[in-house]
Amino acid sequence: MSHTITTDDLAQRVDDAARAPFILDVRATDQFERWRIEGKAALAIENIPYWTALTDLEQIVSKLPEHQEVVVVCAHGGSSGMVAEMVDRPNVHNLEGGMDAWANTLVPRTLFDDGTHFVVQLDRIAKACLSYAVGARGQTVALIDPSGSVEPYLAIAEEMGAQITDVFDTHLHADHISLGRQLATHANATYHLSPGDGEDAAFDFTALVDGEVFTFGDMDLIVRSVATPGHTPGSTSLEVHERYLMTGDAVFVSGVGRPDLGGETEPWARDLFNTIHAKLSPLAPELEVCPAHYTARAESRDDGTVRRQLGDLLNNDAVVSIADEAEFVDYVVSHLGEPPEVYAKIRLVNLGLSSPDPELAKELEVGRNECALSK
Question: Does residue 71 contact residue 21 with C-beta atoms inside 8 Å?
Fold first, then answer.
């Protein structure tokens, strides 16, 4: 009988070199190449399609370590379960739910908690997406850039005894399907989006207003600008408790958001330069930038959170610190590459102009985000 491991458990282990397992991925090679299990630790990983077990099980067994945990992975957990059963070793575990479950696994990490107020970063590790819960116990909570699965967000609100009153999208996402409207509807909350990104939306939303203040307990969430544009025309930054700056995809802890997802590459690159130097630079350098994405788990801190002081980012990041506009635009435009074709389809979903069935929605989201441009 094979053993199993949950995606929540695996998410903790892949960041810990002492506990990192050996990954046996039994999906087809083309699926493996599209995306795979990754973590902060350097993972040993082998891709051998599951049907090999039916004809040459020894080929699989010969690749597996005897004294390290092995996690067998497939798309849904069925084929990997079969392979784990056939190998029949105590150190071999099947990943429950496979890559389907991994895709929606969120790891909550606390940024701030004074016993009443809290700021939680939720890491959708498979897609390197970050979202946030900001609120006060027994009172109200806001959600920022939610994606993946609604359950973890509802669980945080329930755990804190807080009512979800506001849901924010910092911009029109292209790499993943937003849960913003779904969660707002479920909780009877207000859904907020910038007018610049919601102009073509097929649904109603509450337009973000520059300088608008939302209060959760004694903690303020301030809309710093409805235009920190560049990645999208309406990219918006939200300042929380004079400590955190949720920048969406405008800037990351390393690099900037790519400005070519709406077809206006050079003009949006100039907007992005202006955002950095006219909108973000005047803010307090002690603010910690908390983005909506990261490029690699190596960017995370020892506690697993992804954040960086604004002043450090502005002064020391190889892309963000470029001081000459022409040089910045030239670098950005020349290093972009082609955006994934699927991003245009995801944007339509997030505008309410397309309604894919669950299987198609799942397919649209396959793979990590490719929204960042860094050196």
Answer: yes
Give the position of tokens 């798309």. 75
In angstroms, the Cα distances linking 171 to 6, 176, 178, 180, 230 are 32, 12, 10, 11, 11
Nearest CA to 303 out of 23, 95, 113 is that of: 113
Q: What is the largest CA-CA distance in the chain?
A: 65
Domain that holds residue 83: 3-101
The number of domains in the chain is 2
* pLDDT for the residue numbered 53: 85
| pLDDT, greater one: 93 or 268 | 93
| Identified catalytic residue from 74, 129, 290, 371 | 74
Exposure class string for 116-139: b at 16+ Cβ within 10 A, else e: ebbbbbbbbbbbbbbbbbbbbbeb
374 within some domain: no
> How are beta strands 219-225 and 213-216 bridged, if at all?
antiparallel
Q: Is 129 a catalytic residue?
A: no
Q: What is the pTM of this model?
A: 0.94
CATH number of the domain encompassing residue 257: 3.60.15.10
Looking at the fold, whether 169 and 186 belong to one and the same domain comes out as yes
pLDDT in tens, 112-153: 999 999 999 999 999 999 999 999 999 999 999 999 999 999
How far, in Å, are 163, 190, 195 from residue 153 at the CA level?
A: 11, 15, 25
Q: CA 251 → CA 65, 67, 255, 286, distances in Å? A: 41, 42, 6, 16
Residues 52-71 have pLDDT tens digits of 888 999 999 999 999 999 99
